[in-house]
Amino acid sequence: MHEKITHTESIYSGRVVKLVVHDVELPDGKSSKRELVQHPGAVAVVALDAEQNVLLVRQYRIAADQILLEIPAGTLNPGEDPEACAVRELQEETGYRPGQIEKIGGIFVAPGYTTEFIHLYLASDLIDSKLAQDEDEFLEVERLPLAEALKWVEQGDIIDGKSISALLLVARRLGM
Fold first, then answer.
1. Cα(68)–Cα(3) distance, rounded to whole angstroms?
2. Are 117 and 161 in contact (CB under 8 A)?
3. Of the N and C termini of the chain, which has fewer Cβ atoms inside 10 Å?
4. Cβ(65)–Cβ(125) under 8 Å?
């Protein structure tokens, strides 16, 4: 079932992503093309406070053309450790750093066309610790009881894939 890349053409190279087209040899010997968005990877964090509230961020997402409610997340810098990135992104987006952080899994966003892999974390024992937000990010922080956030997932009010995946993993971990 493995496909062998026989040639690669770079179409676009941006600040975050690169678009390439691979010529591939299929398992049956035939040829095909694969368009691929190469991405450095990312992190996403379910941050729980002492009262089991989850910290969420609201921000406009141009691809969805709407304001989404999501868990804090961000792109890995070149060579950056995912856990360090998770701590940084949580601070930048919510103003808190975790006293404890643990990896709970990871997801490929859309492996049919992108290499993006998101490392998922659970952060707790939150400590007030602000960092400056990215200049191009405009977001609002919202606290929601974890049980309520799970209801919002079921109702379709939280529709971001990384947030849904991570919230469900945390719920299972906590026996909810």
1. 36
2. no
3. N
4. no
Residue 38, both tokens: 């190469």
Alpha-carbon dihedral sign for residues 101, 102, 104, 110: positive
Q: Alpha-carbon torsion 142, 121, 62, 110, what sign?
A: negative
CB 43 within 8 A of CB 24: no
Dihedrals phi, psi of 172, to nearest 5 degrees: -65, -45
Place of tokens 């606290």: 143
Residues that are catalytic:
135
pTM over 0.90: yes
Residue (of 153, 148, 151) closest to 166 by Cα position: 153
Beta bridge partners of 117: 108
Residue 56 scores a pLDDT above 90: yes
8 A C-beta contact, residue 104 and residue 169: yes
Q: Residue 54: phi, psi to the nearest 5? A: -100, 140
